[in-house]
Design goal:
Strand order of the largest sheet: 2-1-3-4
CATH topology: Rossmann fold
Radius of gyration: 14 Å
Number of domains: 1
Number of helices: 6
Shape: globular
Largest sheet: 4 strands, parallel
Low-confidence stretches: none
Structural class: alpha/beta
Bound molecules: 4-nitrophenyl phosphate
CATH class: Alpha Beta
Number of strands: 4
CATH superfamily: Response regulator
Strand content: 5-15%
Order of helices and strands: EHEHHEHHEH
């Protein structure tokens, strides 16, 4: 059965579009469905931030066609796992949960992998360096997620 993974940040224009693109690139779309959303609705309908598009392109991933959407409580039913980029996103999502089953679906992305930090920092107000760092953190976590999900296929 297909595993459905939702990547969530605040604006859905910097971090979670990268997480969506990176995990898609590492997994078979027949096996894993990946989407992303933001807890805030500032940028609904917009394409990802050009700095995220640029860093993804540098590593061979095209995220330019993605469109921003806001996280919705419907997502608790639609997705198996919801990865928050930082603790603020995590708490905003948890505040919308109704039951234990929904709470258990929500994780911090960097719980996966062995990064020395627990949150993917918000790069929006910084420079290109921040986007490179964000890419590396997300990429490391997605390697771990992809390894787990791809091996499920053989179960
Ligand atoms: P993201 O970054 O949560 O990684 O998409 C942000 C994008 C936009 C804003 C903040 C963070 N904003 O305030 O508009």
């Amino acid at each position: 059965m297909q595993t459905k993974v939702l990547m969530v940040c605040l604006g859905n224009i910097c971090r979670s579009p990268l997480a969506e693109g990176i995990l898609k690139a590492k997994t078979d779309s027949q096996v894993v469905f990946v989407d992303s959303a933001g807890t805030a609705g500032y940028h609904i309908g917009n394409n990802p931030d050009m700095r995220s598009v640029a860093v993804a392109k540098k590593y061979g991933i095209d995220i330019s066609g993605q469109r921003c959407r806001k996280f919705s409580t419907i997502d608790f039913a639609q997705f198996d796992v919801i990865y928050a980029m930082d603790l603020s996103n995590y708490h905003d999502i948890i505040a919308l949960t109704d039951d234990k089953n929904e709470i258990e679906k929500v994780k911090l992305l960097l719980e996966e992998g062995n990064a020395s930090v627990s949150e993917v920092p918000d790069p929006y107000y910084g420079g290109a360096d921040g986007f490179e760092e964000v890419y590396k953190l997300i990429n490391q976590a997605c390697n771990m997620i992809a390894k787990k999900l791809n091996s499920k296929r053989s179960l």
